[in-house]
């Protein structure tokens, strides 16, 4: 039988859900002008829904992908102020109290927070140079740091009557430069909270190197169908990273350069746009910047992805995104530092499977269902707090959101807003369905309800 406290929370949710949904629909039916990353909207004189599904970022339409690949340089105005901002706040509730507060100054449950405030430099400068630079205040950790950076140099030409876009991206996170929403950097869920429970295991390409690396990649976008990209990433110095607000010790620094490659093919199919692709990243790391063993950890991520997006009658948009990534790990340094005597310690694998489907009605109301499954080999050195020593976590995330100004024409104002309700149900968490921590906590105890507001201006 559920505890009185949990039962009270369920009553609160059931009682106020109709009112909240009513407010959501009312907002959705409003008709005030809107903007996505407002600086880009003003620069291009395009409405938000031209570049973003549902009239709000970051899920890109084919038009938005083309804008990104051409270096953010499309312009309809002689000059605009290339500065924008956003703020995200949320309320987070888990099925059962977390074992300890998720961050200093917060409770074990029922937390409200200003998740983040970001400032953007976003614009094209001339015909060949563009920038998307983000700096963020983390309202949970109460720290400032650099965030996503994507500086581009592009040009266009023709080869045998085929359009060709050539570009170079200088960025600080493998995949942040990608124009599809299938790779981890820009995939669903597009917003989350540091106050919610999260599985411990993740791929190297799933943000582990974000903001602690710097890389350059060159790409070709051929006839708006074939995308080819290759480049490499390295680690800035520890002093520089600390000054930028990043932790240089997590996960460690790259030995030499980490090569990155991407290929994708996009084609109009059945009235929509289909894409299939592959991605690869290989890196040798000094874990925690520790060189005392003279060894490194080696990671090889190989992934496949596919997506389909179709605009239906009345502008409704159906999108399906998917990816599978296999990571092969050779953890010689980590196992040596742990003085592990297990001969199998150094060899490990991690797999990640994602499938997300969304439907956006009139660019105002969206419903997204995402399924995730992360699984791999057991390793007591890597996962000592997991009862099974396995990394496995799986579940479903459902999001209902409203963007009241998402369907409006080109904005005269620099404002957009999304409100949403997320619910994540865990089938497995950190290696098991039941008592995953060895202390009786079940995966479903971490089921999370999150109500969020997201402003861009």
From TrEMBL:
Molecular function terms from GO: electron transfer activity; heme binding; metal ion binding
The Cytochrome c domain, residue ranges: 31-124
Source organism (scientific name): Phenylobacterium hankyongense
Question: What are the coiled-coil residue ranges?
Answer: none
Q: Where is the signal peptide?
A: 1-36
Q: What is this protein called?
A: Cytochrome C
Source organism's superkingdom? Bacteria
Which keywords are on file for this protein?
A: Heme, Iron, Metal-binding, Signal
Q: Which InterPro entries match?
A: Cyt_c-like_dom
């Amino acid at each position: 039988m559920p505890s009185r406290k949990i039962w009270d929370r369920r009553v609160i949710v059931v009682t106020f859900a109709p009112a909240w949904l009513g407010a959501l629909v009312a907002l959705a039916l409003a008709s005030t002008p809107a903007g996505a990353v407002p600086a880009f909207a003003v620069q291009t004189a395009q409405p938000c829904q031209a570049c973003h599904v549902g009239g709000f970022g970051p899920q890109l339409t084919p038009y938005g992908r083309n804008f990104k690949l051409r270096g953010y340089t499309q312009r309809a105005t002689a000059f605009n102020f290339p500065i924008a901002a956003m703020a995200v706040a949320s309320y987070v509730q888990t099925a059962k109290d977390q074992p300890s507060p998720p961050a200093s100054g917060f409770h074990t449950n029922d937390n409200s927070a200003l998740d983040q405030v970001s400032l953007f430099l976003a614009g094209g400068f001339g015909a060949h140079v563009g920038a998307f630079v983000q700096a963020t205040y983390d309202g949970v950790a109460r720290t400032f740091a650099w965030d996503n950076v994507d500086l581009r140099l592009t040009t266009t030409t023709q080869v045998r009557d085929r359009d060709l876009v050539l570009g170079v991206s200088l960025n600080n996170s493998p995949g942040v430069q990608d124009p599809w929403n299938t790779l981890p950097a820009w995939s669903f869920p597009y917003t989350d909270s540091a106050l919610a429970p999260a599985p411990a295991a993740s791929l190297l390409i799933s943000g582990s190197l974000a903001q602690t690396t710097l890389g350059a990649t060159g790409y070709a976008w051929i006839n708006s169908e074939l995308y080819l990209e290759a480049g490499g990433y390295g680690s800035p110095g520890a002093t520089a990273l600390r000054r930028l607000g990043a932790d240089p010790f997590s996960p460690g620094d790259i030995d030499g350069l980490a090569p990155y490659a991407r290929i994708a093919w996009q084609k109009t199919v059945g009235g929509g746009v289909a894409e299939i692709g592959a991605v690869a990243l290989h890196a040798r790391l000094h874990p925690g910047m520790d060189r005392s063993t003279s060894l490194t950890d080696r990671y090889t991520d190989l992934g496949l992805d596919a997506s389909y997006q179709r605009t239906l009658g009345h502008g409704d948009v159906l999108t399906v995104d998917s990816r599978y990534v296999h990571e092969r790990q050779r953890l010689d340094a980590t196992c040596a530092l742990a003085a592990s005597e297990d001969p199998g310690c150094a060899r490990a694998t991690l797999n990640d499977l994602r499938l997300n489907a969304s439907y956006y009605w009139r660019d105002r109301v969206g419903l997204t269902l995402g399924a995730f499954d992360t699984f791999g080999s057991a390793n007591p050195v890597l996962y000592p707090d997991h009862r099974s020593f396995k990394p496995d976590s799986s579940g479903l995330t459902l999001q209902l959101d409203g963007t009241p100004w998402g369907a409006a024409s080109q904005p005269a104002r620099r404002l957009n807003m999304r409100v949403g309700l997320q619910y994540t149900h865990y089938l497995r968490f950190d290696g098991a369905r039941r008592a995953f921590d060895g202390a009786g906590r079940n995966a479903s105890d971490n089921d999370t309800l999150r109500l969020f507001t997201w402003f861009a201006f």
